[in-house]
Each structure stands twice: as C-alpha cells, then as structure tokens.
Specification:
- The complex is a heterodimer of chains A (about 425) and B (about 160).
- Helices cover about 80% and strands about 0% of the residues of chain A.
- Chain A has about 425 residues and is mainly alpha-helical.
- Chain A has one domain.
- Chain A is globular.
- The two termini of chain A are about 35 Å apart.
- In chain A, about 55% of the residues are buried.
- With about 160 residues, chain B is α+β, with helices and mostly antiparallel strands.
- In chain B, the strands form 2 sheets. A 3-stranded mixed β-sheet of chain B has the order 3-4-5. A two-stranded antiparallel sheet of chain B has the order 1-2.
- Chains A and B meet through helix 7, helix 12 and helix 13 of A and helix 3 of B.
Chain lengths: ~425, ~160
Amino acid sequence: MIIDQVVAVLIFVVTLAVILSERVHRTIIAMAGAVVMLAVGMLMGFYSQAQALAAIDFNTLGLLLGMMILVRLLEQTGFFAYVAILTGKRSKGNPWLLMLILGGATVVLSMFLDNVTTVVLIVPMTILIAEILGLSPLPLLMAVALLSNIGGVATLVGDPPNVLIGSAAGLSFTSFLTHMGPIVLVALLVALAILRVVFRRELAERPRHLAALANLDEKGALRDRDGMVKILAVLAVVILFFFLHGALHLQPAYIALAGAAVALLLVQPDVDETLRHVEWGVLMFFAALFVMTGGLQASGVLAQAASAVAGLAQANPLVASLALLWVAALLSAVVDNIPFTIAMIPVIQGLSAFGVVLWPFWWALALGAGLGGNGTTIGATANVITVNLSAKTHRPITTRIWLRSGLPVMLATCVAASILFALLFGWMSTP
Amino acid sequence: MIGQWMKQQVVSVTPTTTAAEAARLVVDKHIGTLPVVDARGTLLGVVRVQDLLDVFMPDFVSLLENIDFVHDFGAMESLEPRDVAEAAALTMADLMQPPVSVEESSGLLRALATMHKHDIRDLPVVDAAGGLVGIASLVDIAAAFLATWVGEERAP
C-alpha cells in the first residue's frame, strides 16, 4: 500500500535528519526511530514484532562484538604502542618514510581490526613520535586517518559496511580480499601520492632530535608480553578461519566470537572491565537501524526502489553499479555510511527478482561507502576521532586542512576505483 | 579555624596579568599558586604553576596513558622562540581554573578535606563577600592540625 510506504519513508527520513543534525546521540535517536517504526507498522499492519526481530542481522552484530573484545584485550597489552615505536624507529626520522611506515602499519591493522580502535591507539603514538622529532604531526595524522579508511575496504572485517555487505550477500573473506585487495592497493598508492604533493613542505622538514626516537623504549611500552603473544596467536587463528569460512560453512560471527571466548579464557581479564570497552552504542545503533530498515522493507518501498532502478541495472550493469559507487561515495562523505549501507542492501537484494547479477553492485557499494568516507572530517568515525584528538593539541587538523588533503584523496581514489572497476568488470561480476 | 593559620600577605594577579609576568612572580617568589582577583579583591579563579607549565607540555603527555617508555623528550625539551612568544602572550583569564576556596571560619579538618578532594596544595581563604583574605598551604594547615595530635600547643 502506498500510504504504508510513505509513512515508513517519512519515519526513516526524519530519524536520519535528526542523526545528521547531531543534536541527539545517533544511538538514542535510532532506537527511538526503531520504536516508532515498529509501533506505526503494527498499527497500520505492515510490520510485526517477529519481522523486526528477523530484520536484525545477528551475524553482523556478533562479528563486530567478537572483534571488539579481541581488540580490547590486545589494546590492554600495549601492543599498539609497541608496533608504533618499532615501525617508527625504522624510518630513521625521515618524515616521508615515517608516513609510509606508520601508514603501512595502520593499513595492515585496519584490514583486520576495527578502524576506530586502530586510529584511537595509533594517533597519540604518531603525535608522540612527531613531537619528540620536532616534525609537524599533521601529514602523519592525515595519513593514518585516510589510510585506515582505505585499508578497511580490503577485507570482510575491515570496516562496518563490508561486514554488512558480506553478511547479507554471503561473500567470503577471500572473495573480499581478491576483489577489493587490488583496487585498495592502487587506491593506497594514489592516496600516498596526493599526500606527498599536498604536504611536500612538511615532508621536507628535517627532524631535530633523532636520538629521542632511538631512545623510545618499545619493550617498556609493552605492558603484558605474554598476553600479547596469546591474543596475537588467537587473532592469527581467527584470521586463518576467516580465509576458510566459506569452505567450512562457518559464519564470521561464530569465528570472531569463538576467538573472543578463547582469548578471554587464556587471558582471564576482569570481564566487566573488558566488556565496558565494547562499543555497545555502535552495536545498538546497528540493531536499531536494522529494525528501521526492516520496516522500510516490510512496507514494500525498497522493492519499489529496486524495480525503479532494475531497468538500468539490467540494461547497463556497469553504468548502474558505477552510479551506485558514486552515490554511495558522495553520501558517505557527508553522512554516516552505515544507515545508507543498511538501507541499500535490501534494494540490491530486490534486484535479483529482475534477473540482475548482484555481485558488481555489492562491490560497488563496498568501494563507494568505504572510500567516500575520506571526503570530509565527518565522513567516517576514524576521521571524527582523529580530528577530535588533534583538537586537543597545539596544531589541530582544521576543516580547511582536511578539504585540502582528504577531499582530493577521496575523489582521486574513487576515480581510480571506478576505472579499475570498469576494466575488471568481468571479475567484479563474480562472487 | 583556618583564619588563624593562613598567610595574610597574598601575592595575587588580575585576569589581565600575562603568563610572562606570572612566570616572573613564580621564579622570584617561589610560589605555586596565584589567586586571580578583580579590582575589588573578589576571588575569580586560581592559576597554579602546573597551569603555566601546561603551555609547554607536549601534546602526547595528555593523550597517552603511560609515558614511562619515553626516555627522551627530544625536540620538546628545547623551548622554541615561537612557542615561548605565544605562551607569554596568554593572560591569567586564559589559564585560570575555577577557584576552590573556604571561608575564614572553616575548621582545619574541613580545609584539609577540601584540599584532598580537589587535589590542591594551596587553599585560598575568602570572607563572606567572596573577597580574598589569605591563603594556606597544605603543610601550614596539616602542621597546625597535627600539632594537637602530638600534644604540642602552637601559637598561630
């Protein structure tokens, strides 16, 4: 019924608008929106409690929860400070090398761990290294934030949109790595080239105190060596199982939660303290958005949207998926990419009724939602955190600095990704 | 009562006093806390020596939980002329913290507990109208308080 669809869209749009206004915390307003969606849906008869419960993707929530617990346990050991010092020392104080090495470490960490945690832990260490060397921290901080977002696109667990897409489309860890990996690699090179040009003056600075870098004591930064070894071993097994999960028919959520259980058993930390550091607000936000999108879907509006674009998707899948990539990228630059991804998933699923091959659309959505986040200071949570941390320093990242460096990186990486996507379209049309 | 034990000669500053002038007071008189008062002597805030030093603190100190592994502060140890000029131009209004104070009639134990709770080592004392009348250090008050315990009568 058309009236159901109008009401459902209205509730969704109003909720999203309040999230964007940032007047109320996004988790609170999403929960309120979910409650209203279900209440109105039940009153009008297009949505039920059972449907709302079924709309929540527990595979996504479980995967995020498991990885959050593992990261928290790893964080406590001092691992991130250890890695930052160890890699920082390799640069011998050369700013460009420091950017490459710290950026490289960030990419690897953000491929397997939550970007937000990676950034929260690497940014203070980056500021430390820049300060004792007497270098400007700005290019390094921009590199950490931008590269963590790009690196996250490469894997199933790298960033939340990928977790959502992988779970909904049944895409494996390996297929994410083989499809997104090559494009991400090129995007990383493009991003580094742009940073090199934009920050050419800062990157030409000479470090004033090389000895201070050599005197950083990485072993002293490591608080719990045994714990670190144990959790890294668990993480290695978890990642190995991610590679095999398709063949073993194991859900990523099961692997991540099993890893968290084993790690908790091995380390036996104060559980309440560990769980306090899980980002429950993020998990609640996801759950609430699932319930809201479930309402949209139940009203039939997402199927309508799918049928509206099905013609183009059938006639020219390349143009249609590139359009999706750019819409996702531009929206992700200015708004949270999670609501958009969650709402787009049923639309793409709806296309299968029209005989459209869905794979290029999943990859396009992952690329757009992931790379688009670099466009503005609010495009991705990693950006918000980097800017907030740097605001407490003597040389904060201003919106101007971001638009001078982050925006060109976002546009250039999206262009590069689009070209590769078109060239590899045959490959992009496979799972 | 704390009024008997406080120092009545207080070195105070005004909101327009610069950080450089305040630094000069700290260096010359070796004082750790500067009460900030207006023209009528009303206590507006407090600048502690830590607040002056914060201007020179590297950013990583506040961002990292643990800094024991940083054995050498490197470039941060040398004061850059630009930083010094920037810091010197700051005024007490920029640096001051909201005042924690007690009135003259406050008991010694209450004064000590107030300092303990707010983690401060110097406590400004005000009259009923909020005017600054004195300042007492932790050791001043603690010594006065503990004197009764060890059975020694000390004159204020």
